[in-house]
Amino acid sequence: MIRNPSLKLKQIAVKTITNGIQIITISDILYLKSESRNTIINLENKKKVSASKSIGLYEILLKNSEFLRVHKRYIVNLEHLISINKNLNGHYCLLCSNKIIPISVRKFRIVKERLEY
User: What's the sign of the alpha-carbon dihedral 1, 76, 56, 104?
Assistant: First the structure.
């Protein structure tokens, strides 16, 4: 499938681990978390969708959107980002849901560049 990179996705079709297909509005996604070979998509309404595809495939799919891979297990929606903080364990993202997502040392430079910090 050829996609026009200038067009922003509004929704994605997600194949769930129960072999169903769920349509998800991109702006409703808070973050994605890798669980083995599957991905858990965490939504604004506190619901979770268990997708049967790897987080790497979602990283590619959401590349031209407001999403950023901040850790090998996490992709966050920058529209829901409140702050980047640091504690003894390193840097982390604070999302509007008060969810704390770690930022790996390797990804911190990329996060700073994307946020133009």
Answer: positive
Domains of the chain, start order: 11-114 (2.40.50.1020)
Assessment of whether the complete model's pTM goes beyond 0.85: yes
pLDDT digit string, tens, across residues 62-117:
988 999 999 999 999 999 999 999 988 899 999 998 999 999 999 999 999 998 87
Dihedral sign computed on CA atoms, order 44, 42, 108, 91: positive
**Separation in Å, CA 42 to CA 34, 70, 106:** 11, 15, 24
Are the C-beta atoms of 76 and 68 separated by less than 8 Å? yes
Q: Determine the 3-state secondary structure of 109 from DSSP.
A: helix
| Helix, strand, or coil (residue 110) | helix
Six token digits for residue 96: 């509007």
Alpha carbon 55 to its chain centroid, in Å, reads 9
